[in-house]
Amino acid sequence: MPSKSLSKIVMMATVCASVLFQSGVAGAQDARTPREAVISVAGKGEASVAPDMAMLSLAVVRNAKTADAALAANNAAMKEVLASLRNAGVADRDLQTSNFSVQPQYRQQEPKNGVMPPPEVVGYEVSNMVTVRVRDLAKLGGLLDSSIKLGVNQGGQISFTNDKTDGVLSDARKAAVADAMVKAKTLAEAAGVKLGRVIEITEATPFVMPEPMMRMAAPKAQNDSVPIASGENSYSVTVNVTFALEQ
Fold first, then answer.
1. HEC readout, the chain
2. Is the confidence at residue 24, as pLDDT, over 60?
3. Is the pTM above the cut of 0.85?
4. What's the CATH number where 103 sits?
5. Is residue 217 part of a domain?
């Protein structure tokens, strides 16, 4: 074998042996290094606040023998509803069409000679739904009442929410961290160890839970309007906290 080839083989063997030796030393050092003891707990916090805004769904539905007639009747009624909402102080940015449909209405005919004929179109139904963001809850009952009188005949779904949630979510987060601290201390004391530094905190997506409490009704000036109870919205936050443990 040529001397140059032999030298290359010797050098490669030396390098491999050096790498294996260093890896073995590092592995031995890792094996001797104890893993840090930790404890992970989940904390939950809730905070409640009265809603300051409502989302209201109102639908105008009209039927007629022809699609054109149903559409014309629906358009006329919806224009009056929107005008009434604007006159009551609802801004254009808080009015949004959320659904519109034109559907034929059928009637099943009697079978002839044992044969079932296809259904007959007897008219058309036009539905137009608008979502209203009501920022003044004192007006909510009156808006419902006037809208129904002007032609709204479907919908009425109401959901209460909050325009700004920074404050209530901050309270829920503080409560969640405090809950995690209490749980971690209890577990550490039970295990006979001491709670150390916080290593990691992660937060799950905040969750809002409407909790009607029947505490708000329409003002006295609107005794004839629809009574409304807004209750409170509860915001829930869950955090996962990892602590170091000291022996």
1. CCHHHHHHHHHHHHHHHHHHHHHHHHHHHHHHCCCCCEEEEEEEEEEEECCCEEEEEEEEEEEECCHHHHHHHHHHHHHHHHHHHHHCCCCHHHEEEEEEEEEEEEECCCCECCECCCCEEEEEEEEEEEEEEECCHHHHHHHHHHHHHHCCCEEEEEEEECCCCHHHHHHHHHHHHHHHHHHHHHHHHHHCCEEEEEEEEEECCCEEEEECCCCCCCCHHHCCCCCCCCCEEEEEEEEEEEEEEEC
2. no
3. no
4. 3.30.70.2970
5. yes
